[in-house]
Amino acid sequence: MTVAAHDPRPKKVQIADALRTEITTAPLPSGHRLASLRDLAERFEVTTVTIGNALQILMDEGLVTSVPTRGYFVQMPPANAAGAAGPVERDEINAIHSEIRRLAARVAELEKRVDHEGSA
After folding, report:
1. For domain 1-85, is the CATH number 1.10.357.140?
2. Is 28 helix (H, G, I), strand (E, B) or coil?
3. How far is CA 26 from the centre of its chain?
4. What is the DSSP code (8-state) at residue 2?
5. Residue-wise pLDDT tens for the chain (120 aa)?
């Protein structure tokens, strides 16, 4: 399986979406070990760095966890399990990141003003 060249989404997002679908529709149980970075890189015909970036997206969503020297594992029950919340929307994550950056800039601006007023 390769990533689609004509798809406007970055490769890491395409791969994260494909893995997310596998995890949630199979469904893979919590604790299930995913294939190695090298195996996934061969499967998707990308570098291991790209695979790592895709897995980071899934870790940010709380769907996958990394255990150093052991691999990547499904962290929580799939979204279609009874009582589980629905899948996290990428747009929602991006909106939250954007809001955090905006607030961080505002805090920096206020701190600058306080430092400037305090030294006057």
Report:
1. no
2. coil
3. 19
4. -
5. 678 888 899 999 999 999 999 998 888 888 999 999 999 999 999 999 999 999 999 999 999 999 999 999 998 654 444 444 556 677 778 778 788 888 888 888 888 888 877 766
Q: Which tokens in the block code for residue 13?
A: 């997002």
Extents of the domains making up the chain: 1-85, 89-120
Angle at 49 between CA 65 and CA 87, to 5 degrees: 40
Closest CA to 20 of 94, 89, 69: 89
Residue given tokens 């003003």 in the structure block: 113
**What is the separation of C-alpha 6 from the centre of its chain, rounded to a whole number of angstroms?**
22
